[in-house]
Amino acid sequence: MKLKTQAYLLSGIILIALLALTATGLWTLRVASNMDNKARVTELFKSAYSILTEVEKMAIDGTLEEEQAKKLATRLLRNNIYKDNEYVYVADEHMTFIATPLDPQLHGTSFNDFKDGDGNSVGQLIQRVLGNRTGQIIEYTWTQKLPDGTIEEKLSIAEKTPHWGWVVGTGIGFNEVNARFWSTAQWQLFLCVVIAGLILASLIVSIKRMLALLGGEPKDVREAVQAVAQGRIQTSFETQATAGSIYQAVQQMSKSLAELVSNLDASMLALRGELQRVEDRAGSIAQLTETQQQSTEMIATAMTEMASSANNVADSASDTARNTDEADKQSQHTQQLIHNTVDNIQGLAGQLGTASEAVANLDNDVNNIAKVLDVIGDIAEQTNLLALNAATEAARAGEQGRGFAVVADEVRNLAGRTQSSTKEIQLMINNLQEGSRNAIQTMEVCAATSESTVTESQNASEALQQIVVALESISSMSHQIATAAAEQTQVSDDISKRINMIEESGNQLSNVVTESHNSTQSLASLSNELEAWVNRFEVKH
């Protein structure tokens, strides 16, 4: 079957599918329209029914009297007007029309007198369907004879109120539903026909363009492509394709492939020779890289040992610096203690001098007291002599001088006790003077010793100050040594890292050389495979 026939057959299938899709859409539209009509009728019914039941409740709870409530419900329902094709009727428990907004002439007439298309009473039909059930929507169908003599089928619903037993109902004619459906279906069918015509026209134009694009039958194009795929490359063809077509592109591709295969064959020979030279150079680089890697490993080992030694020196210098700092701190502390001792000894020497002066003053005071006692002794001795003389004179006087003799005797006794006390005081003063002189001599010796101790302490402080200066100098040099050793260690580590980087780069270079060698071998293998593939093509002139 030719491509044109297949294209026309495909167009027919698409047209049939489009018609089937349109039919399905119309059927869906009909179902949706019926559901919409039913929902619309139900909403109209619920609106009127809710008004009536609310008025019933007002009558039940006593808000309105029953007659007033019925009149209010009648007035509200008769004014409940909808569109021309929408209606809601209300009949009382005897099926007498209470409200028919679109047909007010029916008010007061009996629903039982309203006949369907077969002459049966519609009111009786509704009563038979409803029965005694209240508060439940009942669906029923009936027929109506139109003025033109045709019979229309109608779908209606009705429900009886729970208290008054009034019947509320509504419905819609199928003629209206069908008219609305066909008004929509006509333009959909027209649109479907227009779309089908456009699709057919587009398919015809596309088929012609596709045939022109192919430049021949697909069979011829397929055979040409299969020949290339099987390695049979042609440079001449029995028929020449249309310019700009796929068939012409296939023919041109076959000719280009023939030229490419010839060039590839020549290039493979040159590639094989170049690969051999690359492999030789890669071998030389690998040997040089191995030698460099060995030298780098030796340098890295030496640098590691030097870095370890530098670390040891740095650690020792740091320990020395710490010990020197500690000794410096201890020397400074000792120097401070010596300064405090010198200050205390100087204070003690001052206090000893003060005490020596106080003892000297005390010795002077004691000497003065001794002088006073000497005077008192002389006075007592003279008093004793005077008393003795007085007693002698009293004895001479006899009885007249006895009283005076008694007084003279008492004075003499008192002078004797005074002399005795003076001698005791003199003895104590002598002892006190001896102790004062000993204390003064001892204080003078202590003062001399304190001055000597202060001098020696000052000499020791100066010596410690020199030791502190020396320790500070040693500490500074130790820190400099530690810093230099740390810098040397850092430099050694940096050099070691760089040597390791060089070693790693050498390893990477070795790996790259190895990979390059492997790649060269792979290229050689691929070259052989490519040559085998090229040899599979057979160029026919």
UniProtKB/TrEMBL annotation:
Gene Ontology molecular functions: transmembrane signaling receptor activity
A Pfam cross-reference name: sCache_2
Endpoints of the signal sequence: none
Record-annotated Methyl-accepting transducer domain positions: 267-503
PROSITE patterns linked: CHEMOTAXIS_TRANSDUC_2
Entry-linked SUPFAM superfamilies: Methyl-accepting chemotaxis protein (MCP) signaling domain
Membrane protein topology class: Multi-pass membrane protein
The protein's name in its UniProt record: Methyl-accepting chemotaxis protein 4
